[in-house]
Amino acid sequence: MEQGKTYLLRIVSAVMDEELFFGIAKHKMTLVGKDGIYTKQFKTDYIMITPGQSMDILITANQSPGMYIMATRSYSSAFGAGFDNTTATAILKYSTITSPNPPNPFFPHLPPYDRTEAATDFTKRLRSLTTVDVSLEVDTRLFFTLSVNLMDCSNEDKPCAGPFGKRFAASINNVSFVTPSVSLLEAYHNKIGGVFTTDFPGNPPRKFNYTGENLPEKLLPTSFGTKVMVLEYNASVELILQGTNVLASDNHPVHLHGYSFYVVGWGFGNFDPKTDPKRYNLVDPPEETTVGVPKNGWVAIRFKANNPGLFLKPNSVYMFSWGFQFSQ
Questions:
Q1: Which residues of the chain have pLDDT under 50?
Q2: Which CATH code fits 140-322?
Q3: Quick one: pLDDT at residue 140?
Q4: Domain residues of the chain, as ranges?
Q5: pLDDT at position 82, please?
Q6: pLDDT for res 155
Q7: What is the pLDDT of residue 316?
Q8: Identical fold at 6-119 and 140-322?
Q9: Which InterPro entries match (predicted)?
Q10: 93: helix, coil or strand?
């Protein structure tokens, strides 16, 4: 880098599962955009980025000529779940270094891998650049629970390596997606019957203490199907994404294909429809295409259903392979 110049870094999280902390030694970063959309600018020592998200940051070469390490490490809130806790690094070097033996590079101070407070401190600062036209009246309200479940093994004589000798599955409203042999759009366009049904539940089929401890084992199984939900064109939709503690709780990255949406609220614990909407940000909520649902928490998003198609999936490769998908 050249001394005194400001650089734009476009950062994309291409990891499969965990969210990441990222920082640059001795350099403040200014966040200016997220998911290709401008945000209110703010300075930060680190960012927290979810799988599938992108962020635009500015850095100014305003330090003494030298070498400075850029580093990233996982943020994992799941208890007892294994993950790669290594730290990836790269070197940012000033072009004015002339010494044949430059000093050792400086290392950034990143939050510990399990520091939820650091993740939320960053997330709560996200705002749209200006006042936005978020829908104040809602036509369709949806409530989706996101769970890790168990399913029987295909070979009954040979138990799987998961808990209770079963396999992992994942569900939205206790439905685990089954990939059809014919694409959903093709089946819809050509009126091919038997490929999907239109009875995807808009609310959990069973209500329980979603984030409670020691949930009963009867919640572990999931149903399977190729189900879609039909939304009216141009409907104003509010979708609550509720994490659960079924089997194991974790952050869930969720992406809405074909849309951007406004994150009007988020929090920990069970969503309360009476009190939590009072805390919504309906003035300048961040506009995103991918959002991380916090462990044992919830996110409220709003969008206009004005782009017909099949959308919404998790960005975790594991969750997708276990059947975590929703079709509109």
A1: 315-328
A2: 2.60.40.420
A3: 95
A4: 6-119, 140-322
A5: 59
A6: 74
A7: 41
A8: yes
A9: Cu-oxidase_2nd (IPR001117), Cu-oxidase_C (IPR011706), Cu-oxidase_fam (IPR045087), Cupredoxin (IPR008972)
A10: strand
